[in-house]
Write a structure and sequence with these properties.
2 domains, ten-stranded mixed sheet, alpha/beta, single chain, disordered N terminus, globular
Length: 417
């Protein structure tokens, strides 16, 4: 345990305290956690299948850097785009033309204290983000505003042993409709770390969609936490695509606080070599008459490892809940691994809830069938994998986001479909 505690100190000791307007009470809570919480180990149930020893051994630092062009990382061409390199805002690469009815503010320019809805107690990475916040952005979609084109946030890591502690705050006010696109990339350097938090508030009758693409280097660390609050009659969708990264952890916590809400969580992860991707989700139904739908699919090759742990809570007074949860995985090699644990915790008696998990390999008879009709073995397998994750891809409404994902699949996995 002493070694782990020492690694925890090394993990943060080179980081400067935040200079942003984080509330004093939150900084105190975060510092207490940093001083008293060891790096999570596999003895911790929430981290049972994810080893973080490598993170603890690195002394991360934050340095400013520049990139030549945003073109390789631009997901949606027509979007209002904000670019951050190592967590620092790049004005020259960003488009500051803001859609009508939308307010975008850099956290570094705020003259008010920033609160937080994330848990800081015993949560080492939330505490690190809070105490050593690099930068961030607050986006407010005004009431009754319909934003036709998405707002795009591009994160690029560049350098060795660089950490970005970044915070995004999104508020979708009543009767608004909008979409956010987030892209996470790395350009140069090894063993860098993106520690990102997104706090979301979806007010009454608002519709919000987030499309998130993670495509960093195979030696990078990435921990992403989304804390979502849904008010009555709201509709929230998040689509997560993990296409590269060394150790990737996605924490998604949906608080369904109002009646007649819809929550849609979709994800696809395609892994090879020694990648490790861990998706943890919680949907907390606190009130009656709501629906949640969760669909995650993984394609795992070589010596890579996937983890899915999705939990749905239905509180005692939350009657007439319809909750569906599904995780499917295809293993492309004998050394690939998946740990899947969908969970339901139900305290109400008038609900319709189901969950399921499947893991298998490609059907060799189906591969033979496709080859008999003129496809090569490689093309046959690609077609079957494409059909498998297609159910998740079909959840994405923005065609440019889909095209960008297909471009990565062609580049990284040599797909020609």
């Amino acid at each position: 345990m002493a070694v782990i505690a020492e690694n925890t100190v090394n993990f943060t000791k080179a980081l400067a305290p935040t200079s942003l307007s984080v509330s004093k009470s939150n900084i105190e809570k975060a510092m207490y956690t940093l001083e008293n919480s060891p790096l999570p180990t596999t003895r911790n149930e929430a981290w049972k299948y994810t080893r973080l020893v490598k993170i603890g051994k690195v002394k991360f630092q934050n340095t400013k850097a520049t990139i030549a062009s945003i073109d390789p990382y631009k997901i949606v061409e027509s979007a209002c785009t904000f670019v951050f390199v190592n967590g620092h805002f790049s004005a020259e690469l960003s488009s500051r033309v803001i859609p009508a009815g939308v307010t975008c503010e850099l956290l570094s320019e705020l003259n008010e204290e920033i609160g937080t809805s994330v848990n800081l107690e015993n949560e080492l990475f939330n505490a690190t983000n809070t105490a050593h916040l690099t930068g961030g952005i607050r986006i407010t979609i005004s009431a009754k505003t319909v934003v036709e084109s998405p707002i795009q946030i591009i994160h690029v890591l560049k350098g060795d042993h660089v950490i970005s502690n970044f915070r995004t705050i999104i508020k979708a006010e009543k009767f608004s409709k909008s979409a956010i696109v987030q892209g996470f990339f790395s350009e140069e350097g090894e063993v860098n770390f993106c520690n990102n938090i997104t706090e979301v508030s979806v007010e009454d009758n608002a519709f919000l969609t987030i499309d998130k693409i993670q495509y960093e280097s195979e030696n990078s660390f990435h921990i992403n936490t989304e804390e979502v609050q849904q008010a009555k009659n709201s509709n929230f969708t998040i689509n997560t695509f993990t296409l590269n990264g060394g150790i990737v952890r996605n924490n998604l916590h949906i608080n369904v606080n109002g009646e007649n809400c819809e929550s849609h969580l979709n994800g696809a992860y395609l892994l090879k070599n020694k990648q490790h991707v861990d998706n943890h989700s919680i949907v907390d139904h606190k009130v009656p008459n709501c629906e949640s739908f969760e669909l995650y699919k993984g394609v795992i090759d070589d010596n890579s490892t996937g983890v899915f742990n999705g939990k749905v809570y239905v509180r005692q007074d939350a009657q007439k809940i319809n909750a569906f949860q599904s995780n499917g995985n295809v293993l492309l090699s004998d050394n690939a691994t998946i740990n899947s644990k969908p969970e339901l915790e139900i305290y109400a008696d008038d609900v319709k809830c189901s969950h399921g998990s499947t893991t298998g390999q490609l059907d060799e008879e189906a591969v033979f069938y496709l080859r008999a009709r003129g496809l090569s073995e490689k093309s046959a397998r690609q077609l079957m994998v494409s059909a498998f994750i297609g159910e998740v891809l079909n959840k994405v409404e923005n065609e440019q986001v889909l095209d960008f994902i297909h471009g990565i699949l062609r580049k990284r996995f040599d797909w020609n479909l």
